[in-house]
Design brief:
homodimer; 435 residues; alpha/beta; Aldehyde Dehydrogenase, Chain A, domain 1; Aldehyde Dehydrogenase, Chain A, domain 2; 2 domains; 7-stranded parallel sheet; 16 helices; globular
Chain lengths: 435, 435
Amino acid sequence: MAAVTTSSSHADGDDATRTDLLDSTMAALGQRAKAASRVLAGASSDAKDHALRTAADALVARTEEILAANAEDVATAERDGVSPTVIDRLRLTSARVESMAAGLRQVAGLADPVGEVLDGWVRPNGLRISRVRVPLGVVAIIYENRPNVTSDAAGLCLKSGNAAFLRGSSGAIRSNTVIAAVLRDAIASTGLPADSVILVEDTSREAAVAFMRQRATVDCLIPRGGPSLIRSILENATVPYVIDGDGNCHVYVDVEADLDMARRIIVNAKMQRPSVCNAAETLLVHRDIAAEFLPGAAAALDGVELIADPRAAAHLPGATAADEAAWSTEFLDLRLAVKVVDGLDDAIDHIATYGSGHSEAIITGSVHTADRFTAEVDAAAVLVNASTRFVDGEEFGFGAEIGISTQKLHARGPMGLRELTCVKFIVRGDGQTRG
Amino acid sequence: MAAVTTSSSHADGDDATRTDLLDSTMAALGQRAKAASRVLAGASSDAKDHALRTAADALVARTEEILAANAEDVATAERDGVSPTVIDRLRLTSARVESMAAGLRQVAGLADPVGEVLDGWVRPNGLRISRVRVPLGVVAIIYENRPNVTSDAAGLCLKSGNAAFLRGSSGAIRSNTVIAAVLRDAIASTGLPADSVILVEDTSREAAVAFMRQRATVDCLIPRGGPSLIRSILENATVPYVIDGDGNCHVYVDVEADLDMARRIIVNAKMQRPSVCNAAETLLVHRDIAAEFLPGAAAALDGVELIADPRAAAHLPGATAADEAAWSTEFLDLRLAVKVVDGLDDAIDHIATYGSGHSEAIITGSVHTADRFTAEVDAAAVLVNASTRFVDGEEFGFGAEIGISTQKLHARGPMGLRELTCVKFIVRGDGQTRG
């Protein structure tokens, strides 16, 4: 069984015709996803877990087919002069396919969030109200060149009772198409709908816009990509979405910090994996310990370019001079902005001005200072005496993660299975009418 | 102290200039709301409740001023030939101002949602993680001609620690301006920021669009209005929003229903207050009890125009013939679509096709049928043997309501104080770094 195709290449004629055709093709795919989601919403945990394990086995069994398709994607990327980093993300190996399968088995082993009763109460008139966790329905995911997202996202959606409506990038289309086909075949073989996973094969920009506007069928859109994708969603999407945004994360070293601990934490937060959203981008240091702390910190941050304001630069020979842009840049690299601040208020104000609401850490031994920092800093996660790198679904114990939300509505911070659900009120009476 | 004005009437020159000026004026208002929200986030329940009660007293004390401004709005509306229904919503009286004040006092008496610890756990590495409830920040509300919304929305936002950024309609602008000024004065007199309530006085369409795009400061937008407002938000908004949408609500009378109960419930759901979103719009009747149920129901629905499909019409002499549009129309009036269905599956399919995801009721004595209906119908609220009219913040026991969400993200169903908050992860360690 092939994955689903939205072919619009035969749509010549004017742009409006092409747009209409795209919309109706995309709407038809959405309707199929919606129909599948109604079946999935009622599927037992056993049925979903069996489908996930069957899909895992199928990925491993059909590794050769997957690698052959992936080799074509990689060859195209190399011919097009795509950067080695991007090609590395795109490239699959037997080990990486095994790892995708292991991801599905891990999700099968997690608790099913569907059906949880969040709370319930009885009204004076006898009405019994409960709030229960139910799947969202159709979860749309738009993502870039990592073919493993096809399998990871499909697995999380299936476990949480949602149909996965996927739109990957053109660079990984052959890999994604085969992976989606393998998943669909495997899921269908267990009796759940093949349309539990639908991959949009039209990778044009117009198709992406049509995808963001399927309000009749898409219950939630999660983008996995950079600023231009986010901008496109803000401008074009009519479906509800959860933004997995930037992490311009700060570590503030307070006057009452254990400076050895502070050094270990900033090194970890910056260097352990610089390319990810929960890596630190700015170090804020209290002025009264700057002279004592910064030289040793700089030595420990060996290999990191320091971009310092004048007060920090006084203790950091060789640092680059910071301009205004330094404070708002997510470097995702071995570069770190460093600023000396007058104290807690100054640090909190800096974070309020430049932070992206992702993860913010303070190093301090003072209960009072820690309490104010955690209360006054507005971010998905606020950490005391720990590295920002812990803000992650796995590290939080969620078992798996679909992304990290930097918005406040619906989900904030690491999103696991629970964040792929919503609630429904169930009201039971014995004939009550309103007076 | 006057409420805040965005005057753009002096912006002649080209449209782009006017748009830029509007955006920067609106952004400045948003920044003021954001600054106030930072103070409110740290305000104690006592301080917020004192401000609410002071504001309630001020509304009553300044009733004459409010009524004078309102009389001008009403005179303008009458001169413009606005419908009596709309003028009734617009008109304030001493009793209505008292009722606005009573609303603020009621909100002051509710439990403060801020600071609630939702859950917490310890990771194997010793990190202590908790999830706490915090205010959203700046809540933007765009609404139509009811001046009481100015006070009601401001009160709910203040109690939940949010700044209220309000944009009412031109028809109520004089009333809204005075009410906002009264609230601002009263709040400021208690030591909280006057900018806890900011009313946008530019009621142009362009200002509404600028209002929907203040992503730098607005954390959540809640529209209170009709389909054209919703459409404008879907197309223009870049801020996160919660849609308070239509209610195309169904009552399904099953073959195992107590028919007396079913009759009382459909009469209540349709007739008790036809103009509201949780009123029933379509009655679905199992074919095997249609002949027995429908004539008596029609008699009880005295004064309601019945719009029936052929099988229902057979038992409803004088009914209007239903066309396709009947099933998707929210009448908000003494009109009811009636359809005979083959059974539970047919009823569930009809609701899946035409429902708006608001409130759906079944009347049945069968546990099995009730369980399937509650599991398979996808709506904010699903009711068994009770009127759809109960789906409401007050009736659910929330004490107050900012709206009823028909979307699935963030809030679904009646929204009280809790739905005006979000969560923050607080992570406490003693020097943990990621390996």
